[in-house]
Amino acid sequence: MIRVGILGATGYVGIEITRLLLLHPGVEVSCVVSHSFAGKKISDVYPHLAGITDLYCEEMDVASIHEKADLFITALSEGISSEVIPLLLEKGKKVIDHGGDFRYKSVEIYEKWYGKKHTMPHLLGRSVYGLPELYRDSISTASLVANPGCYPTCSILAAAPLMKNRIISTDNIIIDAASGVTGAGRKTDLPFQYSECSQNFKAYSVSTHRHTSEIEQEFGNLAGAPVLISFTPHLVPMKRGMMCTLYANLKKRASTAEILSIYEEYYKEEFFVRIMPEGRLPETKYSSGSNFIDIGVVADERLGRVIIVSALDNLGKGAAWQAVQSLNIMCGYDETTGLKVPGLYL
Amino acid sequence: MIRVGILGATGYVGIEITRLLLLHPGVEVSCVVSHSFAGKKISDVYPHLAGITDLYCEEMDVASIHEKADLFITALSEGISSEVIPLLLEKGKKVIDHGGDFRYKSVEIYEKWYGKKHTMPHLLGRSVYGLPELYRDSISTASLVANPGCYPTCSILAAAPLMKNRIISTDNIIIDAASGVTGAGRKTDLPFQYSECSQNFKAYSVSTHRHTSEIEQEFGNLAGAPVLISFTPHLVPMKRGMMCTLYANLKKRASTAEILSIYEEYYKEEFFVRIMPEGRLPETKYSSGSNFIDIGVVADERLGRVIIVSALDNLGKGAAWQAVQSLNIMCGYDETTGLKVPGLYL
Amino acid sequence: MIRVGILGATGYVGIEITRLLLLHPGVEVSCVVSHSFAGKKISDVYPHLAGITDLYCEEMDVASIHEKADLFITALSEGISSEVIPLLLEKGKKVIDHGGDFRYKSVEIYEKWYGKKHTMPHLLGRSVYGLPELYRDSISTASLVANPGCYPTCSILAAAPLMKNRIISTDNIIIDAASGVTGAGRKTDLPFQYSECSQNFKAYSVSTHRHTSEIEQEFGNLAGAPVLISFTPHLVPMKRGMMCTLYANLKKRASTAEILSIYEEYYKEEFFVRIMPEGRLPETKYSSGSNFIDIGVVADERLGRVIIVSALDNLGKGAAWQAVQSLNIMCGYDETTGLKVPGLYL
Amino acid sequence: MIRVGILGATGYVGIEITRLLLLHPGVEVSCVVSHSFAGKKISDVYPHLAGITDLYCEEMDVASIHEKADLFITALSEGISSEVIPLLLEKGKKVIDHGGDFRYKSVEIYEKWYGKKHTMPHLLGRSVYGLPELYRDSISTASLVANPGCYPTCSILAAAPLMKNRIISTDNIIIDAASGVTGAGRKTDLPFQYSECSQNFKAYSVSTHRHTSEIEQEFGNLAGAPVLISFTPHLVPMKRGMMCTLYANLKKRASTAEILSIYEEYYKEEFFVRIMPEGRLPETKYSSGSNFIDIGVVADERLGRVIIVSALDNLGKGAAWQAVQSLNIMCGYDETTGLKVPGLYL
To answer: CB-based contact (8 Å) between A194 and chain C?
Structure first.
């Protein structure tokens, strides 16, 4: 039984992690930190947790917070992260962070896409990119894991077999993506009001979204050479769910069946990656409320192009659930502990 | 480990039961029957179950179906129920049924509200109304449990403390209710098409809904005298969730706090009934994806009236999850086994 | 051609009025005031108006605003109303206001339900309650019209024939109501965020909603004696639309057909009131995007009770469109000018 | 005043046309044909039309239908089209058709993508592709207009300035598109049930959608050379609205402002095409309920690529409203008659 502290527990990612860990047989949630709701029962802030926990939200005392748990999951605004994370690591604690700071190997790329100085560049060497399907071994011994972005998780797992097997040309890759509204977090901004975003569909951050650079980093690692991509996110009027539709030109003709067999081979040991049978494609409801990612393949032989469609729950495999997957690996638990749950469908 | 057969597994209630029981530590799902999809993998029909189960849907052979499990959960159309349920009971099997047939003590009332002959009146004496908070002991020894309707569950638990404590007059009770669309089941009727029921709200079956009679039966049992009610259901453009708003005139003035203390006392041993603190009311998202029912109380002292607001998941405590709660009781398991899950909220 | 100024044009009611009046053949929108967006083109704030108008939002200069139009429609926060409305009237301008201030005949009732002092009690004698179906003649000569609340419009028109014909007892009237989210206005409060209110249903302001008192005032006028009611609003996950389900005990038995004929007679001259045929009930999509209110009747002969179901668009007949209906009457235009539009359905 | 007959009036496109034409000052709706609802008042089938029209749905008598109107709008299943359209033309009537049959110049391409024989190839020479922004003059004298598909309208208008000005290479064009559910029509198929498609996002018909060929035909005409594209539609959980996100490689570097000025020039006379200012992109709510198409441009100078985002209402400019635009042109009315309406936004 390890003690876990959740710093930033009342955002949407934080509360989903809390919900999951309250059910996790190997974890005691020993502290939940929320600046906005310090002093309140978490079940008064989120009444779906009533009857399940009597935890109170705490204000964070940076100097002593390390005493409260063995492992910390941080979903904090950036200013606070740089105060507390170095200290936690210094005290020998393990950390799984949700910010962008530790996802990059290059400070320059981070600073260019995030438009600001990196405050903890000395920690980049220690951090591991928390995508278990690619970095399981490193995660198992890491003290600092950077939980990937939702779009990057959905994109990287969609493309990894293509990249690794060098069957596509890397200079015309388009990723057209779409996310449910919880991806924006628990904000009160006007564009995320029900009356503004219900019954509405829009593109945003076209050609400038930060996740572009995160995807390009990992695509480059997989391909063994730099890769630049077009990435366009859209906002879908639904709570949970994310889809990436990826287009790439095939180096040589291949059928859907041939490419599918490459995917099945590549992911044959992966519990949370489901390859759809030929002729079927993912829908977000299949993985909603779960840690699964579903991947479908269509080879367009007319055009010599492959189209990959991937779907996951932006709060699931795209955030909270994937963090718990890494936690399991870091703690020596079976990787599926507390996560062996099908999607909701309804 | 008991073997459970699910007859009618590919309707919305059936598939939710299947999803739950696949995760249940004391249950082996030994057979899933679906007339429409016999011969198909259930995960091809419902891809959210891929990676979790390799079960195939079976056609039902009435003569031998009893061999396939120890306990059967039936969510069948009516004609088939009367063929198979008597046989299962004869063979010593336990049955939890989702039809209206076994919920009534009076054949006359059933026949009046359902507009047809009852085909198994001889079994009514054996059947127990599967509302654990009211009939836990009888359920524990029952071989035939009638899982209650969703509106009745939501209404009866909302009103039981008032009825039992005789603090309301029973001649002006109004229940105004609302349900998400999954309550209509997996039908392809025009009114349940997305384009027809999204962004739309409507009342239906006003003064004629069958559940009226089921609620009246149980209200009568609780009050010790016949009770007639107005019951008006509405359709809400959401998938899951149900709310009842109940109005009743108080026999004598009482404050919200006084009535709340009656509720807290009445339900103090009930894990799945959550009484909201004064000044707060349920929202369907608190119990969505769970077996909880949330109940809020407002005494309107100006009018001498009490308003009770109750919410549950129509597929959760209103159907599939409550069936598993009864299953746990019937099998001697801890009543919360497999069900100790908070709502989804998001 | 009259010149109309819209004060508070960028809220949801204001922008719907603007949209309507830009298409109105007898109106020139001569000024749109918006504190938040002063100096911006209104089509930059609301791009659906691009190509239709080049109007700019103005800041309000209280001293000179009266020069900008002949008639003003005000949808302002309360503090500002009391500064500007008296001045406009003094200058001989006509005003249609959307606040609660001028809807009441009794200062005491207003102050009790709104919890504050009335700032313009001297104007109550001049103001007319802007429900054309009840007060058409007074509106035609009024200089100050109080546009009714959405729930009151939906409730009063639903009950008027019952009240006026004295066929119900007035001591057990329940109105259970539901509204789409635009009813909350263009706010950025957390409960109205998409992720919070999509796929969710809840009751709010139970027994305390201000509109209760507005409904009671008009019910009292119709019945010729004081009437107290229970009124419970709910929030529906949809943008537009409102429904009231009203329960009342009949003084003597009556069939649905008999009550329907009373409604048809009562509203036989009213273009915007549609009585549903027997056996059919309103759905909000029928009137969404229009000035219609639909009313359905069910007599529950078993209980001696009548249930009235009424539906309208909370931004339509419940707010903006009704204001334009009053404007037409005040200006001597045909009452349906610019409003003879069916609902959207889709 | 021309008399218009609507054949197939009770589908979603048909009823939207009916709604529009009932308000059109130059049109008398002289007959509405619906096989499914023949003999019923159309306002009983679609109650939003109550109070607006007393029209009855008729069964179609092929031999005499031509007598009922001067111009016919057909939204029929294919078998019936080929029976009635040739006859109408023979009798000198004008026809605007919604099927795919008359949109193609090449019988081969039609037959390849539709997978069946063309039944009226002799009429292809007479038919005009009903996209007024490209074919206004031909439409003005046409007797047979093929109303374009929704995705093609959204794609072709998005790309026309790029194609016509030869500033993109045509061999790597990707169109990633998304549509609201009314695009599927008034069907009762399971995938379009609320419980199946609410809170869900999916791709469909990947690399095989018929509209691909329609887009390629018109792209080829504009570019003066054959063009092949990838086209991927997605289903969005909303009623109305459509978006295309188009990716193309620029022949030489260009800024967003430079490309925008090309668009502004190209569409400067077009009332229904709105070019978004730099830094802003369309959202479907801007054009929902209108005949507008909104187009936004982003040049990604890092990649030498341009991304065009276009949005329209699939029932508006994508179907019913565009048909009325063509009707106006064919009848010599001002092109905006009955269509000068802003989007709904809410």
So the answer is: yes
The alpha helices in B193-313, defined as continuous H runs, are: 194-197, 211-223, 256-266, 284-287
- All residues of chain D having their beta carbon less than 8 Å from the beta carbon of residue B289 are none
A2-147+317-330 and A151-314 have identical folds: no
CA distance B20 to B338: 7
Phi, psi of A171 (to 5 degrees): -105, 5
CATH topology of domain A2-147+317-330: Rossmann fold (3.40.50)
C-beta separation of A6 from A60 below 8 A: no
Proportion of chain D above pLDDT 70, given as a percent: 100
pTM for this entry:
0.98
C-alpha span between B93 and B67 (Å, rounded): 9
The H or E element containing residue A277 is: none
Sequence-distant (6+) residues with CB within 8 A of B193 are D186, D187, D188, D192, D193, D194
| Phi and psi torsions of D20, nearest 5° | -65, -45
In A, minimum Cα distance to B287 occurs at: A48
Residues of D in contact with B46 (CB under 8 A): none
Going from N- to C-terminal start, the domains of chain B cover 2-147+317-330, 151-314
User: In this predicted model, what pLDDT tens digit does every residue of D78-130 receive, in sequence order?
Assistant: 778 999 999 999 999 999 999 999 999 999 999 999 999 999 999 999 999 99
Q: DSSP class of residue C148?
A: P
Nearest CA in chain A to B344: A48
Q: Any idea what DSSP says for residue D81?
A: H
ipTM value for the complex: 0.97
**What SS3 class is residue B95?**
strand
Q: How many helices (H) and strands (E) does chain D have?
A: 11, 14
pLDDT in tens, D285-319: 999 999 999 999 999 999 999 999 999 999 999 99
Q: What angle do CA B101, B105, B111 make, to 5 degrees?
A: 55
Provide the strand spans (E) within chain C.
Answer: 2-7, 27-33, 57-58, 71-74, 94-97, 128-129, 144-146, 173-179, 202-203, 229-235, 242-249, 273-275, 293-300, 305-312
Does C169 contact A at CB distance below 8 Å?
A: no
CATH topology of domain D151-314: Dihydrodipicolinate Reductase; domain 2 (3.30.360)
Reported as a single tens digit per residue, the pLDDT across D138-154 is 999 999 999 999 999 99
Name the neighbours of C, counting chains with at least 3 Cβ pairs within 8 A: A, B, D
Smallest Cβ–Cβ distance between D188 and the set B182, B190, B239 belongs to B190
CA distances, D281 to each of C15, C104, D269 (Å): 21, 45, 21
Cβ-based burial of A264 (10 A; exposed 0-12, middle 13-18, buried ≥19): middle
A150 given a catalytic annotation: yes
- Indicate yes or no: CB of D206 within 8 angstroms of CB of A303: no
Q: Which residues contact B231 (CB under 8 A, 6 or more apart)?
A: B151, B155, B175, B177, B207, B209, B211, B212, B215
Whole-angstrom distance, CA of residue A170 vs CA of residue A229: 8
**Contact criterion met (CB below 8 Å) for A34 and A57:** yes
AA identity, residue B284: T
Burial of B18 (0-12, 13-18, 19+ CB in 10 A): buried
Question: Residue C326 to residues A153, B116, C105: CA-CA distances in angstroms?
Answer: 56, 53, 19
Instruction: Decide if A47 contacts B280 (C-beta within 8 A).
Output: yes
CA B325, B331, B333, B337 dihedral sign is: negative
